[in-house]
Amino acid sequence: MTLFDAAHYLNKIIYNVKTPPAFYQLAQGSKQPTLDDIVEGILLLLTNEGYPTENVSVSLVDLTGNCCDYAQYQDTERRYPASIVKLFWIVALYGHYQAGMLEADNAVNSADEALMVHYSNNGASSRILDAITGTESGDDLEADPLKVWIASRQQVNEYFLGANYSDLNIAHKTFPIPDLALDERAGRDSQFAVGTESAADDLTARNYLTTLSTARLLYEIHTGQAISQEYSDRIKAHLQHSTDPEVWQSEDSNAIEDFFGEYLPPTVQLQTKLGYTFDDGRQEAAIIASEDGQTQFILVVFANDSRYSQEGSKAFPEIARYVYEQMTLRSQSSRTGSTTAMEEE
Known about the structure:
Blueprint: H1 3-10, H2 35-48, E1 56-62, E2 69-73, H3 85-98, H4 111-117, H5 122-133, H6 143-161, H7 187-199, H8 211-222, H9 229-239, E3 240-242, H10 245-248, E4 269-277, E5 281-289, E6 296-303, H11 315-344
Antiparallel strand pairs: 1-2, 1-6, 3-4, 4-5, 5-6
Helix pairs in contact: 1-6, 2-11, 3-5, 4-5, 5-6
């Protein structure tokens, strides 16, 4: 496939869910504590621990009851997402499979799916982004071929923007990529970043997401809408991580220590994608559920400050533990309220 072919066919493909979910924000209600209370509690927790909140964004979705109650803090601010872009790339890959534009196990080795999503392998991620955009990393390009290359790479943005995702840039690879002997951007990847930076503001030279758009995608995966029920289930399987210390502490590389799962009960169901860089802090997007399913929620936190990425930082485990405890109280208050109402009848 040529770059011109890639630019042509990618223009035809848009993510299948065009209408954003009906998240709503309620200050009061039968469920206590409210989600606003919980989000405010997150900020208080961070402040008390000495963490800054200026560059933090939070989205919280209650997946129980009359879905979906929602609360947020700075949820439309652009944040660097690190490896959370890979959640969007796997959806785009499956969308191309579903549309017949790529052939499964031919365009990408199926092992790369889990390597990218579950293990966050940058080599697998590079190959998948190449496949869905018809581009490859390499040496510098002359002006005209570079324009085609950039247009093709940016179609991964259009795939979601065309489905009313409001603000994102997920067209840049994540580095380092040992498979390509690349510690950082080089060649056409660097040309892409420099070109977009000079053409607009510096944020276009880097990936960015909002916690709102990330929470939306997780919701669509959770409800089986992302491409299809089958593909949504496959994504959830890739995102699944055990919170049982006997499991995750024996893994060479895990997605639990210093992130949401570390302080959660060992029986919790955790489907999560995380991001981390030394300079840009930590990011995590997760579907979290109790074993009995009475407590279920989406929690997305982007903390773009290097103090969150310091070795041994427990900000994210503390956030998740606090939210899980509060959401459990919330589900209990809802059941108590329902029982009382039935008795009064």
